[in-house]
Amino acid sequence: MYARRQFVATRARAFAMYASRTVCSRCASSVRAAVPPTYRSAPGAGSGSVAWFSSTASAASQQASSSSSTPHSFRQTSEGTISKTGNPQPRQPPFSQKAGASSKRQPRRNKDASAAVALFNDVVQKSEVAAPREFPTRPTSRQSSASTVFGEWEIAAKMKELEEKDVEPLERLRLFQNDIWPHVKELRGQIPKHLYLATTMFLARTFDTVAQQGLTGASVALSKMCATIGKWDLDMRNQLVLNLCHTLISKKHTSAERNALVDELLDMWKHISQLRRMSQLHNGRLCFVLPSEDEIIEDISSSSTSLTKQTEPGEVKSSNMAPTTKALASIFIQFRFEQARELVSGLLATLAILSDPRLARDGSQIKAAPLLNLVSIVLDHQPADTAYVNDIFAGKIRFPSSKLADLQSYVLAQWPQARDMVMRHDSEWRKSTTSSHKPSRSSSESSCLSAFHKQLRAAYRSRNTGAIVSIWQDLNATLVQDQDLRRQMSEDPDFLDFWIFVWCAVRRPKKLQETLDLMREVGIQPTVRSYTSMMHGWKMCKDADRIEALWNKLVESGLRLDAVIWTERISGLIEAGKPQSGIQALAEMQALWKKAVASRGSVESAANVAVQPSTEVVNAAFKGLIGLDRRAANEVLYWAGREGIEPNIRTYNILLRESLRNSAPEDVQSLLKAMKKRGVEPDAATFTIILEGLLGSMENASAAEQVHVVSQILGDIEAAGLRANHETYGKMLYAVASLANGGADEAIAAVQDHMKAAGLSATPHMVTILIERALSRDPLPADAGATVRALLKEHGLSNVAQGDQTLWERVMSAHAVTGDRASAMAVFDDLARAGRPVTSLPCLTDLLKALLASEDAQAAQDARQVVGVVLNHKKAAAEGSFGRDTRYWRHHFWYLARENGLIDWQEVPALLESKLRG
Predict the structure, then answer these.
(1) 510 vs 92, 132, 497, CA distance in Å?
(2) Which of 85, 758, 790, 797 is most buried, most CB within 10 Å of its CB?
């Protein structure tokens, strides 16, 4: 059988070698039939054939382990192996047992890495043997030439069929990218001339169509496809750049659409800067890769010297290129001047776009800082006036003439602002290029990392994976521009540990690998905390296999593990659907501890080699089990008691929450009594759980029912021998006030009466809750203003020296909403004189709306005063840096101020003006 297969394969290769380029469909079919099943992965292959790939998983493992022994099908894409029907075949999940078993076949990426980094590589990268690489390699020599010949003509036929389809250009491109391009890409380096011509003609026509119809969203993808097959024409890339610029100036867009277009424009420049650079061949991330300032200056000096020599008597100019054009072309140093000059018109148009506050914000300038920095050096040595710009656009440019005329007019009109943006020394974008040279971090610099951290947390909380990826891209772009950020990262390893957690939680192993690479770049060693973050992320996405694979690697490494990672492992297994494994892990932990104590002779010595199970570990197991199997959860508690592990407040909080969830409020009192008996003090979470559990289900309850529940809660607390404090009553007031229409007055009164009986007075926080409740009624009562004043009087609050800032900002807002503008302005002025002006933009918006609603001249003057005070306070607090506070300046308060002419522009710094003008 083996000999016959070899004979058939040899015959097929010979047939392919001598086949004519005009193979007919019948011959192609014969060739296809001659290729044995071993070299084909057609679905439904007969069982009689000897199959190398018995399953998708084993196929992936064999392919990853040895490319020389496994033929590489041209159907493979970056997402996995594609069948002949075009459907992706499922890949083996990373970190499975098979992957772990074969991971030893994979060579280490960095033999000099420390043990910790090597371990991290093992876990993140090498365990995923089953996952195919992002970029398929070329067909190996063992692959049948016959299948390659068939592929060429099949591709050509599909391309012709696609050209004849009556579909929209972007849809045609999508079909090409999905159905044809993967096969063309696999043939790169061996692509036949006829197929190369067909592909380049298709792409060139697509470029022209994109420019003619003003299509967007595919610029970088188009350019990348051309680069893959070795087509480097810069006039085509410039065409895409000009198209984006023209689309921005010729059509109306929403703010989000404008931002997306500007980002696509900047991505094009990043991509262009990476073209023809070997260092970027396998870099899938877009970033600016540009020459240094010294290289640019040297090129400019050399060009000037060359030009001087050429103009001496007897010399002939070798180039009619303008010095400014040559200097700008030198930015793209990997291309010859004659090639790079094609990009100058697009570069000038981009500068005009970035300088126009109607189209681009300061953040876009900051993203383009590496490019703008080099342009500023060029224009400093070789100025560019409007006459030069006009000459550039009057030249031969590959772009529709009517659209080019529009762009020319726009760039000429905008050029003074563009030149000012580039040359001004206080431009916003310059800060990102100079931060690493400052002697100390300013408040804005020190908050750079925390700003990214805050954005990431918000994106993860909303489970917005697209936003998470976008933040990661922004972070990497900022790293290129701001070297000081690397230092900040190296001093704050928790930041990258959180990224590790997020990538695991959202199932992005490639991004996890990028984070590992970044950790190495900034000099951070992965720690047990890093691995705990990984495990926590996999717990969130319920990936028990990865949790176990990671744990096995950690144990094999001999790394000392702590109670936190043990806890994460146990709870992760339970919550990921393997409760028995979680319980076994808990038992294993206890067994190892007992063994260590027995062998070492003391608890202190045992702690050096093992971890003692704690109440927190038991709580983690108990919390995961109680929702799955209450009996098993209780058995864990009994077991813990026998082992001398006592419950703590978190144990009781878990029990309280579960009792209320199961509609068993009668258990609350007994649990509280048990806490009292064991001397376990309740915490804030205890009362929150009780309040949310009992009051949260009373949305449509009557006043009497609300009062009854309030009394029941307070009675249970007292019966347990516990004492409610200010925080307890505050939470209770908030819970009642959060009910429909502010809750029943009787229930609010019941809470207050009980509090007074306990000898406690209302706090400013409680008064704030009551004021907001008075304003939450729908419709707003006519006496709401009187209610607010009565509340202040009742609690002895007569001036801003009493209470806190939040209270008085809400009081100001309440006066404004209820029509008492004089009282609202009085509070505003008092706070400003006290050196703590109002900062809450929602409250300020209420005040500004009330003032603008009046036709009184004094009200208009007050409105201008409010805006001035807020602006001056914010300017002082920002210390001249407004780059990372974009959302603040987009608030409706500033829109009202701008639209009603309340901003004194002479007092507004130039850096801030573009933000305020929107």
Answers:
(1) 15, 12, 16
(2) 797
**Arithmetic mean of pLDDT over the chain:** 77
Q: Are strands 80-81 and 76-77 parallel, antiparallel or unpaired?
A: antiparallel
Buried b (16+ CB within 10 A) or exposed e, 274-308: bbeeeebeeeeebbbbbbeeeebbebbeebeeeee
Say how many CA atoms lie within 13 Å of 537 toward its Cβ.
25
SS (H, E, C) 128-175: CCCCCCCCCCCCCCCCCHHHHHHHHHHHHHHHHHHHHCCCCHHHHHHH
Q: Is the pLDDT of residue 291 over 60?
A: yes
- Both structure tokens of 622: 């108990």
Nearest Cα neighbor of 760 from 796, 722, 725 is: 725
Beta-carbon contacts of 372 under 8 Å, excluding residues fewer than 6 positions away, are: 351, 354, 365, 421, 422, 427, 429
C-alpha 568/C-alpha 713 separation (Å) is: 34
Q: Compute CA distances 564 → 502, 817, 879, whole Å.
A: 18, 50, 41
Q: List, in sequence order, every residue forming a beta bridge with 82; answer none if it has no partner.
A: 88
State the Cα–Cα distance between residues 574 and 544, nearest whole angstrom: 9
In whole angstroms, what is the distance from residue 73 CA to residue 83 CA?
10
**pTM recorded for the entire structure:** 0.44
pLDDT band of 336, cuts 50, 70, 90: confident
| pLDDT at position 374 | 93
- Chain length of the chain: 918
pLDDT digits (tens, 9 = 90+) for 276-286: 876 676 667 78
> d(Cα 385, Cα 382) in Å, to the nearest integer?
10
* CA–CA separation, 381 and 400 (whole Å): 32
Give the model confidence (pLDDT) of 378-425 as tens digits: 998 888 888 889 989 988 899 999 899 999 999 999 999 999 899 888
Higher pLDDT, 702 or 185: 702
Q: Distance between CA atoms of 834 and 845, rounded to whole angstroms?
A: 21
Q: What percent of the chain has pLDDT over 70?
A: 76
Question: For residue 814, what pLDDT band results from cuts at 50, 70 and 90?
Answer: very high
Reference 309, options 335, 676, 714, 301; nearest CA is: 301
CA gap 809, 612 in Å, rounded: 51
Q: How many CB atoms lie within 10 A of CB 336?
A: 10
Distances (CA, A) of 476 to 405, 472, 486, 723, 770: 37, 6, 10, 52, 47
